[in-house]
Every structure is written in C-alpha cells, then in structure tokens.
Amino acid sequence: MRGVKDCRNVKVAENRELIEGHIREILELIGEDPGREGLLDTPARVARMYEEIFGGYAADPRETLGVTFDESHEELVIVKDIVYYSQCEHHMAPFFGKVHIGYIPNGRIAGLSKLARLVEAVTRRLQVQERITSQIADIMEEVLEAQGVMVVVEGEHLCMCARGVKKPGSKTVTTAARGLFRADPAARAEFLALIKE
Ligand SMILES: Nc1nc2c(ncn2[C@@H]2O[C@H](COP(=O)(O)OP(=O)(O)OP(=O)(O)O)[C@@H](O)[C@H]2O)c(=O)[nH]1
Ligand SMILES: [Zn+2]
User: Fold this and answer.
1) Least packed by Cβ within 10 Å: which of 47, 114, 134, 167?
2) Is 91 annotated as a binding residue?
3) Active site residue 73
4) Which CATH number describes the domain made up of 4-58?
C-alpha cells in the first residue's frame, strides 16, 4: 500500500493499455470515430485521468493521519472548507463540494494537512456521499481516539444536475456525529455555527 502522498491508482497504471482499448470501444459504441484527430489521444488521457481521480485506492485512509502528537488541547478543532471531487458509484459521474471536520482531542492531535489527506483518500474513489461522511468520522474517532468528531459534507451531484431529474443547484448535505457530539446538542451547535462563519 502506497502512502497517500503518492495518491495515484497503481492498478490503472498496470492496466493502462486495456483501459485505453475499452475507452476506444466505448467511443465507437456511442457513434464516434476514435480515429479522428481530436479523439486520437483521448483514451490515453482518460486512463491518466483515472489514475488521478481513482487515486484514493492507492492509500489506506487509516494511515493518512500519519504520526499524531501528544497535546493537551481538549477543545474543538475544526478544519473546514476542504474541497473534494469524487465519483458517484451509481453513474460514475462526478460529485463535489466541501468537507468540514471538527474534533475534540483526547490528548492527541493530528497534523492539519493530514485531515485534508484523509478527505483525498476517501473521496478519490467510487463513492456515495453518506459513506464519505461516516468513513471520515469513524477514522478520526478510531485513530485519534477523539472525545468527539463531527463531519459535514456538502455535495453537488452531476447525476442529478446534468441528467436524470435535472435539478442544477440542488445540494446534498450529510452529517456524522461521534462521541461527545452525539450526546451534546450544544457541541453540535458550536461546530455548526463555526463552519457557517
Ligand atoms: N444516497 C445517495 N444517492 C446517490 C448518491 N449519488 C447518486 N445517488 C442516487 O443514486 C440513485 C440511483 O438510482 P437508480 O434508480 O438506480 O438510477 P437512475 O434510474 O439513473 O435514477 P435517476 O437518477 O433518478 O434517473 C439516484 O437516485 C441518485 O440520485 C449519493 O452519494 N448518495
Ligand atoms: Zn449518480
């Protein structure tokens, strides 16, 4: 398992020629001419893009928080507005938005950038928004043994905007609360107020 810094999908790299062949076939099957100039390099571009947008599989999300530090801060820590791009597992269409993560440490803190690396590892896959939200909350709780974790994810799903029900501008908001945040409405309210600022 590679580290999250090298977040490229190894399997795509290994299977690049096969993937390119299948993309060429799809181009034909939708009525395009894969031999025309503008499409000649498209299968290779798509394969390179897959390495990137499915790069989350190259990382173990639990390892992304890296080395944690002893620190006695036992109040709320928030990293908000972490932009993500993911692919919905139903249509393989992009969805994207922001993740907001808050936690109350229990003697151990993580590097702030590592929270964004966790988001990358969990979102650069075929996903549903609810699973992204709960996976981030569960991993934060487990790895940091945090007293509480709260995660809010906002998402705009192209499968709802550009096709199907066609509702551009509609936003999905998902939340996950663990530990103290489950039991304490005031803690949840403090977090929600701070991410709105
Ligand atoms: N809960 C959830 N649903 C999602 C997510 N991404 C896409 N979907 C939904 O997955 C569902 C798939 O429904 P289906 O009826 O199997 O597929 P479909 O015929 O293409 O559905 P429509 O999108 O309604 O045209 C749709 O309702 C999508 O809106 C997500 O992250 N979470
Ligand atoms: Zn979808």
Assistant:
1) 167
2) yes
3) no
4) 1.10.286.10
